[in-house]
């Protein structure tokens, strides 16, 4: 544990108790910082991690579900250290093009089950195209194109293009990729920026154990003393650049945090871990003075998508024992280019929102529960519907596509991240025409900017969260690493000011 300067205790406020905020707090506390306060607007910590038990004693994840990758992944390493990974044989993955199996049943709109060989051929081709994009192996002509445009052109030039069934499965692949990228459409997503995201080795779907993601949160929460975390504390305004007389570490506190309930906290440093979606809605009034132009531009230009889950609990399993999920292949799906283009400028798509659902997968430790995935504007629209209505639509889809006798569900549960006023979506994506590295680095830059002010106290307002990580945006390990990153800025700031053994400053 580091020894703090004897000159005083810096006051540090962290806004948001998601994994980024908790990682920052735990890092600071473990390095000897004792005046740390975490403000959480919701009535629980965790942010976009939300482990629940709505269907009995086993967990359902309304938010983050898996640990993506093993090598160099601090979340995976933490889960390993504390024995929190799923036991062998209890994991269930989401059906995506890169990991389909013979247990994934694909049904056409006409009620025909598609041959697994054909589905595998199309999904394998799609996965190879995505690998080329991630590995930066694309022709320069695609640099400024959308991911959807790139995929369509490559498919059109392939031997698969002559098959109508292959075209339909390829649309399912694009619809599935929308969920992974958290975008409304791949025609709005930049293919030229995809290579910046780094996929870690060791599998994309590493599952946590019976305690869910909450067990990982508990590791951080147990490291914090009582009173450090304050829930139901939404922040109204962060005033920075102050030069008033409130005395703290080496003089006046440069930052004041105003809470919605009227409480005020003086601080030397504030780490903001609010989601990009929340910043997009509130940044213009949340900071005084207003954020620098380049930071406001980054908040505005980066995308923050909606990904929603629909859980259907049935009295008993109605699908075959060798079936891990039911995937829906439309005659004309929303990721067909002509369908997408025709939907622009009108709201007719709202009547067909359900066509964005990729399918229904099994859920770990819940043998009688299916989970549907939906993304984009359709997910946002769905969140405004009654659960009963959504359940009825989903059952109608299952009956019409499979021809099976599908009972009415006992219960329906939906995630509602877009409707949550303190989150406003799922995770970050890179829209077409956006320079991802430039905007994400601008978003992560602490205030005051070094280029603007060399007199004011440094590191007054710092920014963390998955949106601020160029390589690991969208992930829990990305969020965690940014929390640690900002804590380390503060730790290093005070370490540099400690006397060295010869009595001089360390820096």
Describe this entry's structure for a reader:
The radius of gyration is 24 Å and the shape is globular. It contains 13 helices and 23 strands. The longest helix is centred in the C-terminal third of the chain and has 20 residues, at 476-495. β10 and β11 (251-252) form a beta hairpin. With 507 residues, it is α/β, with parallel strands linked by helices. The strands form seven sheets. A six-stranded mixed beta sheet has the order 6-18-19-20-17-21, with helices on both faces. 31% of the residues lie in helices and 17% in strands. Mean pLDDT is 93; it is low at 1-7, 244-250 and 500-507. Its cofactor is FAD. This is Spermine oxidase isoform X1. InterPro entries: Amino_oxidase, FAD/NAD-bd_sf, Flavin_monoamine_oxidase.
């Amino acid at each position: 544990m580091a020894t703090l300067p004897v000159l005083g205790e810096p006051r540090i406020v962290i806004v948001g108790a998601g994994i980024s905020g908790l990682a920052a707090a735990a890092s600071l506390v473990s390095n000897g910082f004792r005046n740390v306060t975490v403000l959480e607007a919701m009535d629980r910590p965790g942010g976009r991690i939300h482990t629940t038990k709505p269907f009995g004693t086993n967990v359902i994840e309304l938010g983050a579900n898996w640990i993506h990758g093993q090598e160099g992944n601090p979340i995976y390493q933490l889960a390993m250290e504390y024995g929190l990974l799923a036991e062998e044989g209890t994991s269930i993955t989401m059906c995506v093009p890169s990991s389909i199996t013979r247990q994934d049943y694909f049904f056409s709109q006409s009620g025909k089950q598609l041959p697994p060989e054909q589905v595998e051929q199309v999904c394998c081709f799609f996965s190879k195209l995505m690998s080329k994009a991630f590995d930066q192996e694309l022709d320069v002509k695609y640099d400024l194109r959308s991911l959807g445009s790139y995929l369509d052109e490559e498919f059109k030039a392939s031997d698969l293009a002559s098959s109508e069934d292959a075209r339909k499965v390829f649309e399912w692949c694009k619809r599935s990729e929308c969920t992974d990228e958290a975008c409304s459409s791949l025609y709005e997503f930049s293919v030229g920026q995809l290579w910046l995201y780094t996929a870690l080795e060791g599998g994309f779907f590493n599952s946590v154990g019976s305690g869910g993601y909450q067990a990982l949160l508990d590791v951080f929460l147990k490291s914090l003393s009582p009173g450090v975390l304050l829930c139901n504390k939404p922040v109204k305004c962060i005033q920075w650049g102050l030069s008033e007389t409130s005395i703290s570490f080496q003089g006046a506190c440069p930052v004041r945090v105003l809470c919605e309930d009227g409480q005020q906290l003086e601080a030397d440093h504030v780490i903001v871990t609010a989601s990009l979606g929340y910043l997009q809605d509130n940044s213009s009034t949340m900071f005084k003075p207003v954020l620098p132009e380049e930071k406001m531009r980054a908040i505005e230009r980066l995308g923050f998508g909606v990904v929603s889950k629909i859980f259907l609990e049935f009295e008993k399993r109605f699908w075959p024992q060798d079936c891990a999920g039911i995937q829906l292949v439309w005659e004309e799906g929303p990721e067909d280019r002509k369908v997408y283009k025709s939907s622009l400028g009108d709201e007719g798509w709202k009547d067909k929102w359900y066509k964005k659902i990729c399918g229904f997968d099994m859920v770990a430790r819940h043998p009688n529960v299916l989970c549907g995935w939906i993304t984009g504007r359709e997910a946002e629209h769905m969140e405004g519907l009654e659960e009963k209505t959504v359940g009825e639509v989903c059952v109608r889809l299952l009956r019409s596509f499979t021809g099976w006798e599908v009972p009415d569900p006992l219960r329906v549960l939906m995630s509602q991240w877009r409707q949550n006023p303190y989150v406003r979506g799922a995770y970050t994506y890179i829209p077409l025409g956006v320079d991802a590295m430039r905007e994400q680095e601008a978003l992560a830059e602490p205030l005051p900017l070094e280029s603007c002010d060399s007199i004011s106290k440094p590191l007054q307002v710092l920014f963390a969260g998955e949106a601020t990580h160029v390589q690991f945006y969208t992930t829990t390990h990305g969020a965690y690493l940014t929390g640690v990153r900002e804590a380390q800025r503060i730790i290093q700031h005070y370490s540099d000011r400690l006397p060295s053994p010869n009595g001089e400053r360390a820096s």
